[in-house]
Description:
This protein is α+β, with helices and mostly antiparallel strands. It is elongated and about 45 Å long. The longest helix has 17 residues, at 8-24. It starts with 7 loop residues before the first helix and ends in a 29-residue tail after the last strand. The mean pLDDT is 79. The protein has one helix spanning 8-24; strands spanning 31-39, 44-51. The chain has one helix and two strands; from the N terminus they run αββ. It has a domain at 8-51.
Amino acid sequence: xxxxxxxxxxxxxxxxxxxxxxxxxxxxxxxxxxxxxxxxxxxxxxxxxxxxxxxxxxxxxxxxxxxxxxxxxxxxxxxx
Length: 80
């Protein structure tokens, strides 16, 4: 199943997609894969994807990016 993000391969693909998405926008995110083991309710093993993001937005810029834009697009406006 290609859209199963709970198994090891799917979780790894999701991790890479998240990191690439935010890297392309100048943000550094820390995404980790956590092996949860067998879950009786799912009747299978599960791999969790965890990150340092808050409410789906990264909290730090990449080290080589000097721009101060906010990932949500909101923030201080320059007024002439």
